[in-house]
Design goal:
39% strand; alpha+beta; Aminopeptidase
Length: 165
């Protein structure tokens, strides 16, 4: 377990299907249902055994406060999901998970990281602070529970071995 410098002490561990209860509790609290972004338990369980997929769980005082689900393909990695429990927001959890994703990509010798995010998601500023830039837009990509559509932004960053996280 690694403790990350932040507003709270956060332990990051590589997780597995055995941690899905924690993941789903964070997912339920973190994602507003009206935006249609959360994954189901079956979707999470289905992707975990795939090659190149990794789940990182963030805990504070033994309680799951966030997670990142990533997938590496060739010389790139994609951030599939990043979720922070509302109790952990603004306390360094998302930044710790994102820094870990970047570090893992650098250590694996990857050249590029990318993600997609709802345009109005406050996490856009987190990704920008970590040097992700907007590369494109997917109009009406997310469909919320209320039937409303929301655009997605595609964001990416290059990894250079001597660049800070």
């Amino acid at each position: 377990m690694r403790t990350v410098e932040s507003s709270i002490s956060i332990g990051l561990t590589r997780a597995s299907g055995e941690d899905l209860d924690d993941v789903m509790q964070v997912m339920a609290a973190a994602f507003e249902p009206s935006f249609g972004e959360a994954w189901t338990r079956a979707q999470c369980a289905g992707i975990l055994p795939m090659s190149g997929v990794e789940l990182t769980l963030a805990k504070h005082e033994g309680k799951a406060v966030g997670f990142a689900l990533t997938r590496q393909v060739a010389a790139e990695a994609e951030l599939l999901l990043l979720a922070v429990h509302p109790d952990g927001r603004g306390r360094g959890v998302g930044s710790a998970l994102l820094t870990q994703f970047i570090r893992q990509g650098r250590e694996a010798g990857l050249h590029r990281l990318h993600l997609e995010v709802r345009e109005s998601n406050p996490a856009v500023s987190l990704y920008s602070r970590h040097l992700f830039i907007v590369e494109g837009r997917r109009p009406k990509y997310y469909r919320g529970a209320d039937g409303q559509f929301h655009d997605a932004l595609t964001m990416a960053r290059s990894i250079v071995s001597n660049t800070a996280g």
